């Protein structure tokens, strides 16, 4: 049981410190992830030359970088607050320990002085011999021995408590140093943010000077996007019709076979067996799937949020799904059937899941496009300069399917347009990607 109070004290404190440390570590992890996003965007900005045509792309990258930078600063503030709380807690505990140490030292000093004044070896002997009987003498001997042991424990407790205080002061100093480092980092991030916001304002001024030209480019891009969607919708309708025709043919064949069996052996049990359909759609008017396609579709759905990004190399989303009002340019409003992912020149597009290539086609403004079917889900990869697969090929997750087009006349921008459909419905791909 020696020094047990210190062990118990440290055990009780451990969860509180572990919880604080876990919070700080989690915030540090988030900060590193946000800094990695900034690094990716910075790399893409460096690779994207500043030209008149691609200024909107650069503005989108700058806006993304500013958002990431603000996220980093916000996380830094949370880290500093967490460390301040930890330091306050440690200071309170050190104060309490020092107060307890002072009390112990005072009590020990009084005890030592009392022993020095009254309990010399002769006094102790007289104390024992002056007992009324032998039993009392034994009790007095035991008392003196236990008293001496208590004094030793008190001395050891004082030493141990001092060690605990010294250790906590070392931890506090380390925490204070970590806080100073974070404060310096936050100051640097704020300076970078001011610089980036200044660059953003310059980009906005340049774009406002050529508003008409930009709007004309956006209208042209919108017409190209509509043409792409019409091609995708026609392909989906054709596949649904073909699957339904195959299902109908299978039903008719099974019916003919049933009638033939019944005619050959009237009243036989086999004539009452149910007709098995080769393909079945999940929804009315949807894509009729085989059992293998149904399993593939279910596996695809179960991997929502865990699908790999459809590009290799560093990347960032520069255009989100759906109707978007540009935050900085009020006259710019876009509609996107998928997401646009900017990456480095020379990067490949890759399949996000196992599936079958159903079509490869060309649309002006989007170069080559590939559709991959995953049961009743489809993924679309557009703006490819080179295609590595053909219709009918089976592909696997992360397999390279084509080279993403790099527009040398548009500042070396390399952007993949990626779409996700279920049956005839467009879905936002972003929540599906990891």
TrEMBL record:
Residues 250-264 have a biased composition (Basic and acidic residues). Residues 17-107 form a coiled coil. It comes from the Bacteria. Pfam families: Peptidase_M23. The keyword Heme does not apply. It comes from Parabacteroides chinchillae. Residues 250-287 are annotated as: Disordered. This is Septal ring factor EnvC, activator of murein hydrolases AmiA and AmiB.
């Amino acid at each position: 049981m020696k020094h047990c109070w210190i062990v118990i004290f440290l055990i009780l404190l451990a969860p509180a410190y572990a919880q604080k440390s876990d919070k700080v570590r989690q915030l540090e992890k988030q900060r590193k992830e946000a800094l990695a996003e900034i690094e990716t965007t910075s790399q893409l900005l460096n690779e994207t030359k500043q030209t008149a045509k691609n200024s909107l792309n650069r503005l989108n990258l700058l806006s993304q970088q500013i958002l990431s930078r603000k996220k980093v600063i916000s996380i830094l503030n949370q880290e500093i607050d967490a460390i301040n709380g930890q330091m306050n807690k440690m200071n309170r505990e050190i104060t309490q320990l020092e107060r307890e140490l002072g009390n112990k030292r005072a009590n020990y000093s009084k005890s030592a002085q009392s022993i020095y004044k009254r309990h010399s070896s002769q006094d102790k002997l007289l104390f024992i011999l002056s007992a009324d009987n032998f039993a009392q003498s034994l009790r007095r001997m035991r008392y003196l021995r236990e008293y001496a042991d208590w004094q030793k424990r008190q001395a050891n407790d004082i030493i141990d408590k001092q060690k605990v205080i010294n250790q906590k002061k070392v931890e506090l100093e380390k925490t204070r140093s970590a806080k100073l480092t974070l404060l310096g980092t936050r100051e640097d991030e704020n300076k970078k943010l001011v610089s980036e916001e200044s660059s953003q304002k310059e980009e906005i001024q340049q774009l406002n000077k050529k508003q008409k030209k930009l709007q004309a480019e956006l209208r042209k891009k919108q017409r190209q996007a509509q043409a792409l969607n019409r091609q995708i919708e026609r392909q989906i309708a054709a596949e649904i019709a073909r699957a339904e025709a195959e299902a109908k043919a299978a039903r008719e064949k099974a019916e003919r076979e049933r009638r033939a069996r019944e005619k050959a052996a009237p009243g036989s049990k086999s004539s009452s067996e149910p007709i098995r359909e080769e393909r079945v759609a999940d929804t009315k008017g949807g894509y009729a799937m085989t059992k293998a396609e149904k399993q593939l579709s279910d596996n695809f759905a179960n991997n929502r949020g865990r699908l790999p990004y459809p590009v290799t190399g560093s990347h960032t989303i520069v255009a989100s799904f759906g109707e978007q009002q540009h935050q900085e340019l009020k006259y710019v409003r876009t509609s996107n059937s998928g997401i646009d992912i900017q990456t480095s020149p020379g990067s490949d597009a890759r399949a996000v899941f196992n599936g079958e290539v159903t079509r490869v086609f060309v649309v002006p403004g989007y170069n080559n496009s590939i559709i991959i079917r995953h049961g009743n889900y489809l993924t679309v990869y557009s703006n490819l300069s080179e295609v590595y697969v053909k219709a009918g090929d089976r592909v696997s997750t992360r397999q390279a399917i084509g080279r993403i087009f790099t527009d040398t006349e548009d500042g070396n921008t390399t952007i993949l347009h990626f779409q996700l459909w279920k049956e005839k419905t467009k879905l936002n791909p972003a929540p599906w990607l990891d």
